[in-house]
Every structure is written in structure tokens, then in C-alpha cells.
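Problem 3 from the worked examples.
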Amino acid sequence: MTTAQSEARSLVELIAGPLRLGDNVKAALARVSVVTGLGDRRVRAIWNNEARAIRADEMDRLRQVALDNRTREEADRAYRAHLARLAAAQEALRVPYPVEGSSADRRLGGVARGADRALDQGAAR
């Protein structure tokens, strides 16, 4: 069973996320302060386990921001996975000759479908 102080500290850590390159703990805690609306000193007190009590509204804010961050990360992960599946499907369904008038047709110089094959030119008669 966790206490409110330890849960609040873990939520602050979760919201802060991994430190960015060139970042320090103070900057990460300042970001947590901005997104939660809690003061800098209050966030630092929670981080350093100096907060004697955590009010319900503070805990609610921390939980909501942590949930929002998790939801955003899951949506980003799902979006990237969807893009990867689309790219794989596009690669698997690659058509040897582009459809006339398509952007791929224009990139290839407007060569008509099958124009490079001798059978289409009537040479096989």
C-alpha cells in the first residue's frame, strides 16, 4: 500500500518523464509545475518527499495530467504503428506500372502503361 506522498512523487516522476538532453531535474520539475498548475516549491517539496500532506485537489491534478500524458503517448504509439502498417501495405501492393494520370505517372515522365513492351507495339506479329 502506498502513501499519498509516495504516490504523488511517483506521479511527478511520471509526468516529468525522462530527462531531455542538456536538461536537469530543476527544469523537469518546472515543466511539471506548468502542466499541473502547482507551484514550483510545491512540486519540489513533493519530489524531495518534504510534503507533509497532499491535498485531494493536488492529487487529482497530478493523476489527471499523468493520465493525459499516458493517453497522448498511447495515441502517438498507435499513430506511428498505423503509419508503419500503411507503409508496409503500400510496399506490398506496389504496382509495376503506375496508373495513367497519377502522381507516380507524372514522376516517371508520363510513360504510358506497357509502352516499353514489344508485344504492345505490335512487334510480335
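Problem 4, a separate protein:
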Amino acid sequence: MEKMNIPWLILSLQIFIFFSLNRQLAFGADTVSANQSLSGTQTIVSSGGHFVLGFFKPGNSSNYYIGMWYGKVNQQTAVWVANREIPVHDIHSSELKVSNGNLVLFNESQVPIWSTNISSSSNSVVAVLEDGGNLVLKDGPKSSTPLWQSLHHPTHTWLPGGKLSLNRRTNQSQLLTSWKNSEDPAPGLFSLELDPNGTNQYFIQWNRSEQYWTSGAWDPQTRIFSLVPEMRLNEIYNYSYVSNENESYFTCFMILLL
């Protein structure tokens, strides 16, 4: 595998044209509510059409996954996968729906194989796909407080607004993990995570044991990682590194250019 020197490339956003046909949910609908579900070729689309959520099949694989992909890119490019380790085979009898306050994926046997897994008993929970690529679970469509959000549970792609973090109380990392291969989104050999030893740098690890690449330490003056000088050349992202007694995390946001 070719050595990756600039992992920030996964943040790029491409704009092309996308057309989507939806058989039951209205075209452009961005919400799954308690009386709706996704199955077959049904999708939800963010309000500006930038992201789509539904079942997809990577490459020539016979397996299907619930995932999110760019809505305005010619080639379907997945950026988030829910059931990356447990695929389904019949998308017409499998469904993604709100159940007992959670967003849950049921396979063809109606067995739950993935869930947002939060403590919620509300009957008004909805899942909304936002235009920044964030799938948000909240208590009612007008609620501004997320119960769960995909940006805090990335799989293999780091989108603007997402966090790669280390919980300093539990020592648990929120990391990115490569696919096994182009047709299998199950976790592969490479991961990107904040150093669990407490230093303010990121490691790409092979098989969770051997260090493959490091960003170097965060420099608060230049606001870049010391071994990633290319960050200076990128003027469309605003980077931020935060560290306190509870957590450390790195995030970025796109700068709107007028």
C-alpha cells in the first residue's frame, strides 16, 4: 500500500450533479420519522442535495450496507457506513427505521443488526440528514439538541465538523479506520487516532500496534501539526485542537468564501 503523507485529503468536498429517484419517501426528503422507514432503493437527501443516505453495494460485492454518500458527485462515494461489519443481502425486506427512540437497521429476518444505541424512550424521535453530512437523531424535528450524530461516530472519512477525540476519563479513542478493501467496508488494517499516551499528535497505526505515520505535535502558534506543513497551504479549512481534563480532540470547519 502506498504510504499516505497527507491524510487531510479525505476532507475534500467535490461538487457535481446528482439525480435521485425515491419510490415512497418524497424526493428531497431529509428525515426518517416514526412512521417511515428506508428499504430497497429508497433514500433520504439532505436539504441542499449534498448528501444521500440509503442502501448501497460497494463495487461488485453481493452485500449491501446502509451508508451516506456525496449527492453531487458522479461516482457514488461513501463517506459513512452504519453496518460495516454486518451486511444485508435483501434490501427489499431489510429496513432502517426509528424504533424505541433509536435509529435501527433490521436485516431481512427482521433482526436488529445496527443501532444508534442511546437511552431514549421518546415517541417523537426523528433522524435528519443535514447538508454538512451529519445524520442527526433528535427529539422532534424542531429540536436543536442532538441525541446522537454521525459526525461524532465517523467510520473511514473525516468530514468538516467531525471530531477525532480521546476521552481522557475512559481512555477511549474516536478514530477513523480504513476499509478492508474496495468492496468490503469492514474495518481494515489502518486507523487514524489521537495518541492514547496523551501527547497532542495523531498516529496512523497498522493493525492497531505498529506506528505507520505521525502528524507531529500540535503547534498552537502556527495552528498546524508540526509534521504536516501542507496544512498552511489550505485556506478553506479552519483547524482547532482542544485539550482539557475530560477530552482531547481535533476538528475542522470549512470557511465560507464570499
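Solution to problem 4. The radius of gyration is 19 Å. The chain has two domains: 31-151, 154-254.
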